[in-house]
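Forum: Protein Structure Q&A
Topic: Joint prediction for protein chains with partners

I've read a bunch of threads here and the consensus seems to be that you should model interacting components together rather than docking separate models afterwards. I'd like to see that in practice. Below is the full input, 484 residues plus whatever partners are listed. Could one of the regulars post the assembled result?
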Amino acid sequence: MCKIYRILYLIIPIKKWKSFLIRRHLERCPSCAAEIDLKGKAVSAFFKPGWIRETPNLWPQIRPKIISLENRPETFRPGISPGQLRARRWSLAAAAAAFLFLGAIGFFLLRQSDHKILGPESSLSKEPAALIPRVQVISAELGGMRAKAYIYQTPMASFIWIAPSKELGELK
Amino acid sequence: MKKPFAILIFLGLLSLARIGALAQENYIIESRFFKGARNEDPSRLGTPVIITSFSDRLFMPSRTPSLTPGGEPDPAFTMRTELANIYKLKTVDYISSGQILWDGKKESLNEAILFDGNLYPIRLYPKTIDGRTISLRIDVRRDTGREEGEKILNTEMTLGLDDPVVLGFPVNGHSYFLSLEVKKPSLTEVGQLAIEPKGEGELNWRQAHAILPQPIYPVMPIYPEKCKKENIQGTVILYVNTNTEGKVIKTRVLGSPHSDLAKSSVEAIRQWKYRPVIWQGKPIQSEFFMTVDFKLREKSPSAEGSGKKRDS
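Posted by a regular:
Agreed with the consensus. Here's the joint model:
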């Protein structure tokens, strides 16, 4: 058989097309016809023991069967329609996309919760530490009177002592 | 095959979106309360049981300040030591702590601490500034039975996320310290948000922002003798529901270090009577959280430190 048809035979997925093409080729291609003829002659040249009866020509019986097979609708695995197969492929793609999406969100949340990206550390990376006030007291009252705030800072926390102040006077 | 799969993916994405939103929108405000004295305080830990009420969702049990089983210092314990050193205090007692949820929208959060026979309502007014800085007004009062109460502290400040601030102020010769830290919830805490108890009264606790009913007949729980002997201490967390008359109609234990402590807490809280919350001119049901801290008298960190020095 011609090389090109051997390749086609291998790659064409649909049985119907495959058998049609091969049959048409064998009928028309002179080299393939000669090859088959040669094979037939070679077979007949072999010694034929007497007990082997000549087999009938099966081609006329096979041909209509092949044609009927060609006309039959293509069969798939039981229970799975082409639509289901397509849906399955889409589901797999969606699952992969969802998995990637979940992974990305998980990574983002973990990063946020572990490193506290909204915390003061992130702000420190942008500006020098001395310029960022960790805490700012806007107003202070003690027992209804204005009070003073004294701030003492350690790496652990900002400690603010609110003390009464006579100079500031009573609140109105 | 296709439909359940699609539904599962949809639900998964929905829950993830919810978790992401919860982590972004909500803040946790952690508060700790301490009492210090320059000299030996005879009234120190006169009440071994301290009750704190919270108007909003409360997170994980407050731990008794001590070394954790892993040998790491408990944050409250470290803070006590730091307070004793900075302010030259002889004793620093941890009163209570709580981690409450702030949804970034509510105008105020309420907390009330009952100890030494006084009720101290603490009201926090948080406001976000730029996602990294919080503006906070703190109002501490002593309940006198009247609506206004006695003003103790009223201060306004801005503070950064994850950077604790400790406010110290004098009251009747004693030093009180309120430590506050605003932080974003961690993944574990976001998980807790998803399983929050649902409000059952006519006023859901989510909506009851600034409303915490005022107790008019508080009964203190009895420290069980068995727990005292076995040195069992810790915090019982309760969910409390009061009716329109101010009676406690439901209590649910959310966490307890020992069943006897939980039993004692529930027995006492069931007898409490509250002034009902008035909402749009009508008395309404209330739902809130409570912590009951059972603590045994212990040495102050400064005393422990000086003891070690003397030994060496």
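Residues 114-130, 168-172 of chain A have pLDDT under 50 and may be disordered.
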